[in-house]
Specification:
Strand content: under 5%
Structural class: mainly alpha
């Protein structure tokens, strides 16, 4: 009786493992498909960004010199609006 139970357990284990063996490699195909979809979405996003920039007539990012000048302008104009900062000890 013990042998029968052990044999039945082994057969059940084998029967349940067959579906897992049915399609080896499906995970890698799914990964590749997801990767392709991400690339397509990224390309679409970049295309839309470029179209917006062309419609607005200005570049999307500032150059380092433009950023520095913007900071200087903000600091300079801020002096007219805000009182000087007090040091804290």
């Amino acid at each position: 009786m013990k042998r029968f139970a052990a044999l039945a357990g082994v057969l059940l284990a084998l029967a349940f493992s067959f579906p897992a063996q049915a399609q080896p490699g499906d995970g890698s195909r799914r990964f590749e498909r997801n990767q392709q979809q991400r690339e397509l979405r990224r390309e679409e996003w970049q295309r839309r960004q470029q179209e917006r920039q062309e419609q607005e007539g200005r570049p999307g990012r500032l150059t380092p010199e433009e950023r520095q000048q913007l900071r200087r302008d903000i600091r300079e104009h801020g002096r007219d609006v805000y009182r000087p900062r007090q040091r804290r000890f």
